[in-house]
Write a structure and sequence with these properties.
Layout lengths: L9 E6 L15 H17 L4 E4 L12 H11 L4 E4 L2 E2 L5 H14 L4 E6 L6 H4 L7 H17 L2 E4 L7 E5 L11 E5 L3 H10 L2 E5 L9 H13 L9 E9 L3 H22 L8 H7 L7 E3 L1 H15 L3 E5 L7 H25 L2
Parallel strand pairs: 1-2, 1-12, 2-3, 3-5, 4-5, 5-8, 8-9, 9-10, 10-11, 10-12
Antiparallel strand pairs: 6-7
Helix pairs in contact: 1-2, 1-11, 2-3, 3-5, 6-7, 10-11
Protein name: LLM class flavin-dependent oxidoreductase
Keywords: Monooxygenase, Oxidoreductase
Pfam families: Bac_luciferase (PF00296)
């Protein structure tokens, strides 16, 4: 079965491959099992007709994936139609040539399904790991993005920067099956990042994990305005929304099942960032309320939240992170099923009626 895109909106899932204990059993799965389950989730998403599957990059022992291109290449062999994207590639500390060639290779392996979502990442451990200084945080990203876009457009590249060594008539191989790889920039909340994405004419993927969605509307406006001012056509300026998601038959069931795992997730993520805060049930209830951006509830509520955000942003892609906090795989699989068989058809119907 294949889901048609509701008025151009692609629906998919992504994983950051966090390895956390199940708060109900106390057991932590192995990196091998986590990897196997990510591939199984991608297969399920593909078979259910979802449009996109993404994998994130981290360089820590509590995450299973450091190389999205390698994992997505394995997934390419197990799937047929679903688009394969990083979520995100930490462009500041990746060599743009290596990144581009890896995803061009993935594109050939997958028959033209590869995409790159580039960002700065939530952690900075990749800087010392690959010999970079956090003092160059902004310049590295700008320079690497400039080079990545040139590599995407040209087979032979001459280029000069301030940090990376220059290229002189370098042959960039292989070339992807697609004419150019789709490239997105992940944006967390800064106007500068939104302006950059628009000016460069790449997609903007908003990470919206909570709060009122309306607070992200100015970023979308900045992005589109910067893109048009730079001479890009509106068709080039794609907006995506990435967010945490848990679906059950009823809202209460979803919140009851998800709270232990979501609280657990933020407990270990906050510890990773040097904070000791815990999420109370009251905090969670507020985060999951109908007017906020956290996608927790019945299929009908998920559709309502996507529609509200679509009214605000006019976005063309929604990616749900459905495997956080040590969730057992059977719950992840159920979420994928409900997203594909309940949310997508309702969303398509609602949007076709609003035309």
């Amino acid at each position: 079965m294949s889901t048609t895109k509701p008025n151009g909106i692609e629906i998919g899932i992504y994983s950051l491959a966090d390895i956390g204990p199940d708060p109900l059993t106390g057991k932590t799965i192995s990196p091998k099992q986590r990897m196997d389950e990510i591939v199984k989730a991608a297969k399920l998403a593909d078979e259910a007709g979802l449009d996109v599957f993404g994998v994130g990059e981290h360089h820590r022992l509590d995450y299973a994936v450091s190389s999205p291109a390698v994992v997505l290449s394995a997934i390419a062999q197990a799937t047929k139609n679903i688009k394969l994207t990083s979520a995100t590639s930490v462009l500041s500390t990746l060599d743009p040539v290596r990144l581009y060639e890896d995803f061009a290779t993935l594109d050939l392996i997958s028959d033209g399904r590869a995409e790159i979502l580039a960002g700065r990442g939530a952690f900075i451990e990749s800087f010392p790991l690959f010999g970079y200084s956090t003092n160059d945080y902004n310049e590295l990203f700008d320079e690497h993005m400039d080079l990545l876009l040139k590599l995407n457009k040209n087979e032979i590249v001459s280029w000069n920067g301030n940090i990376r060594s220059p290229l002189k008539k370098a042959e960039i191989s292989p070339r992807p099956m697609q004419k150019q790889l789709p490239i997105w920039i992940g944006v967390g909340g800064t106007p500068e990042s939104a302006e950059r994405a628009g000016r460069l004419g790449v997609g903007m993927a908003l990470a919206i994990l909570g709060g009122d969605p309306i607070r992200f509307k100015p970023l979308v406006d900045i992005y589109r305005q910067a893109g048009l001012q730079a001479g890009h056509s509106p068709d080039q300026l794609s907006v995506g929304v990435n967010g945490h998601c848990y679906i059950a038959r009823t809202s209460e069931e979803a919140k009851e099942e998800f709270y232990p795992y979501y609280s657990n997730y933020w407990s270990y993520v906050n510890r990773q960032r040097g904070m000791g805060t815990r999420m109370s049930r009251q905090d969670f209830e507020h985060m999951a309320s109908p007017e906020t951006a956290l996608f927790v509830g019945s299929p009908e509520q998920i559709v309502e939240k996507i529609l509200r955000q679509h009214e605000l942003y006019g976005h063309s892609r929604f990616l749900a992170q459905v495997d956080v906090g040590g969730l057992p795989f059977e719950k992840v699989a159920k979420n994928i099923e409900l997203l594909a068989t309940e949310v997508v058809p309702m969303l398509k119907k609602a949007m076709s009626q609003s035309i």
